[in-house]
Amino acid sequence: SRYRKKKQKRYLLPDIISTVEFNHTGELLATGDKGGRVVIFQREPESKNAPHSQGEYDVYSTFQSHEPEFDYLKSLEIEEKINKIKWLPQQNAAHSLLSTNDKTIKLWKITERDKRPEGYNLKDEEGKLKDLSTVTSLQVPVLKPMDLMVEVSPRRIFANGHTYHINSISVNSDCETYMSADDLRINLWHLAVTDRSFNIVDIKPANMEDLTEVITASEFHPHHCNLFVYSSSKGSLRLCDMRAAALCDKHSKLFEEPEDPSSRSFFSEIISSVSDVKFSHSGRYMLTRDYLTVKVWDLNMEARPIETYQVHDYLRSKLCSLYENDCIFDKFECAWNGSDSVIMTGAYNNFFRMFDRNSKRDVTLEASRESSKPRAVLKPRRVCMGGKRRRDDISVDSLDFTKKILHTAWHPAENIIAIAATNNLYIFQDKVNSDMH
Amino acid sequence: MLSKGLKRKREEEEEETLGVDAWWLDPGHPAVTQAPPTVASSSLFDLSVLKLHHSLRQSEPDLRHLVLVVNTLRRIQASMAPTVTLPPAPSPPVVPSVTDNLLASSDAMLSASMASLLEDLSHIEGLSQAPQPLADEGPPGRPVGGAPPSLGALDLLGPATGCLLDDGLEGLFEDIDTSMYDSELWVPASEGLKPGPEDGPDKEGAPDLDEAELDYLMDVLVGTQALERPPGPGR
Questions:
Q1: Could you state one GO cellular component term attached to this entry (chain B) (predicted)?
Q2: What does pTM read for this prediction?
Q3: In the 3-class helix/strand/coil scheme, how is chain A assigned residue by residue?
């Protein structure tokens, strides 16, 4: 068995992590949590002075993004949990990100301050007004260096756009607009305008009694600003073109794999529900995650995915129990690596899986404290279903279903991954900058 | 069985009743494709109904969870043999909890629809018509005539959500019952709370609504009365 040398860093965060996202350069990594907080990590520049901490991530900034709110009209509490964070492409010295809870999206600006003006005429060092009689000459204030301070301020609050729970946000490649999706609708916003949004998808039936399908995830195409995709609870993907119509209820393309009659069960629909959809960096493919598999779709082929990978097929015979304890409704995310050659997704027991599309090899790894000495080796794991069992194998019956890895992220260019395991953020990076195999 | 921390309730009872269906709990069973059972056990049906109740009891139900459970329930019900005798359907309690989510009209819709759903369930015993086809998605699937209604379009979610953005203020004073299904007997004659599947919620309001509470809420809306809870940021 092969061992993969990786550096591992673990952060214990104050609350359950609910989303993880690298920015476009990979320099920054943002996490959102159940308590409405955002923690941003920054990659230290590599330096010869401290070779052991080359390119590692350290805490950069922490702020409270959302607070619990009370909707007075509906008499409902709105959770502060951050559902998604998306970075805007950097356009100046400042960084910007969008964070959202169930109902409200916020645009945050992150700036650095490393100089401050000194030598005011009317104020003293502490900012108190000087006694004017003591001022005898004019001086020009000068900028002096100070300790780096990271300032975060809310620039826009996009409220009241959604009746249902927001599950996705996605920034358009035009860098001017973004979309937000809830269970039944998708809205298009302009980043500078908070009092208006355009509804571009509405699948709410005239009679709610007829509701059979909801929107589960959505994303803009990385290059074509008019294209976006949304997934449904029935396992279908709809690619929409905003140029075709103002309301994109009619899809341009419908991606759906027909149900395999031999594996049909009462839970077929639940396990086909897509929990995440991601365009490849190239824009040619889409990656979807449903309960048991990850699938790669070619935008040019609607009939079926071009690749299907089993994440934890040993659960197929356990679906009834997983239905009973609601685990079957867990929503796992998926991710591409920078070159679109490897895909990653989380599973139970703090396991996460990687699939190499070229070699068709796959590996199961574990994010755990036990193997978490700083220079530990990340060991592949195996789940056995009974029968012959190797020494380090885990039996499927001893999997811990409370330890779910729902949120994972891959650095846009390098082999660095961020894994959220409840309160723990694991950052794995190669010791040597090389391909997976 | 599945994990150390998760204990199933009534574990022994379930093992006995499941019987034939144990194949999907059998850990030794290979994970490759199996021919699914054509008839669901009644306990799977009960489990689904329980999940549905639990989901609807939330002040803001998770729509995805709700829709998936409902669709699964449809499949199960469709596969059940006509002669299956269901246990008596649990009934919603009578008294609406006035202060609970009075202004959330989505719950009114849900409670109204659930009432009819349970009505349907109680009629299933002695069902004489063929089960609905599984792919019963659209409204036309509803059977006509005097035959006991099967679970066609599940009357789960009413039309209005009551959001000002959406449907105006019409749903604001719908009578909401979120404490339903706490195992009290349904008394249909009271309160006019029992609309049919086609009806909207009872527009005349709930007669047992406390007038003082209604006045209080009116004042809150009009702004003469301050709410106890401070508004959050950004409002």
A1: nucleus
A2: 0.71
A3: CCCEEEEEEEEECCCCEEEEEECCCCCEEEEEECCCEEEEEEECCCCCCCHHHCCCEEEEEEEECCCCEEECCCCEEECCCCCEEEECCCCCCCEEEEEECCCCEEEEEEEEEEEEEECCCCECCCCCECCHHHCCCCCCCEEEEEEEEEEEEEEEEECCCCCCCCCEEEECCCCCEEEEECCCEEEEEECCCCCCCEEEEECCCCCHHHCCCCEEEEEECCCCCCEEEEEECCCCEEEEECCCCCCCCCCCEEECCCCCHHHCCCCHHHHHCCCEEEECCCCCEEEEECCCEEEEEECCCCCCCCEEEECCHHHHHHHHHHHHCCHHHCCCCEEECCCCCEEEEECECCEEEEEECCCCCEEEEECCCCCCCCCCEECCCCEECCCCCCCCCEEHHHCCCCCECCEEEECCCCCEEEEEECCEEEEEEECCCCCCC
Instruction: Spell out which residues of chain B touch residue A313, defining contact as CB-CB under 8 Å.
Output: 31
For residues A156 and A194, is the Cβ–Cβ distance under 8 A? yes
Tokens representing residue A235 in the block? 């396992």
Nearest-CA neighbor of B206 among B194, B218, B196, B197?
B194
Average pLDDT over chain B, rounded to whole? Answer: 52
How far is residue A139's CA from residue A135's CA, in Å, rounded to a whole number?
A: 10
Amino acid making up residue B111: S
User: Is the CB of B233 less than 8 angstroms away from the CB of A214?
Assistant: no
Nearest-by-Cβ selection for B101 from A75, A154, A399: A75
Mean pLDDT over the full length of chain A? 91
DSSP state of B146: S
Q: Which residues of B touch A73 (CB under 8 A)?
A: 103, 162-164, 172
Q: How sure is the predictor about B213, in pLDDT bands with cuts at 50, 70 and 90?
A: low
Query: Helix B11-18 crosses helix B42-57 at what angle (to 10 degrees)?
Result: 140
| Minimal-distance CA residue of chain A relative to B73 | A266
The phi and psi torsions of A250 (rounded to 5 degrees) equal: -90, 120
Model confidence at A267: pLDDT above 90: yes
Closest CA to B119 of B87, B94, B96, B151: B151
**Mean pLDDT for the stretch of residues A357-363:** 95
Rounded CA-CA distance B193/B189 in Å is 8
The answer to whether the CB atoms of A208 and B232 lie below 8 A apart is no
**Higher local confidence (pLDDT), B160 or A195:** A195
pLDDT band at A102 (very low <50, low <70, confident <90, very high): very high
Among A119-133, A143-157, A331-345, B97-111, name the one with the lowest average pLDDT: B97-111
For B29, the closest of A273, A317, A324 (CB atoms) is A317
Residues in chain A with CB shorter than 8 Å from the CB of B21 are 320
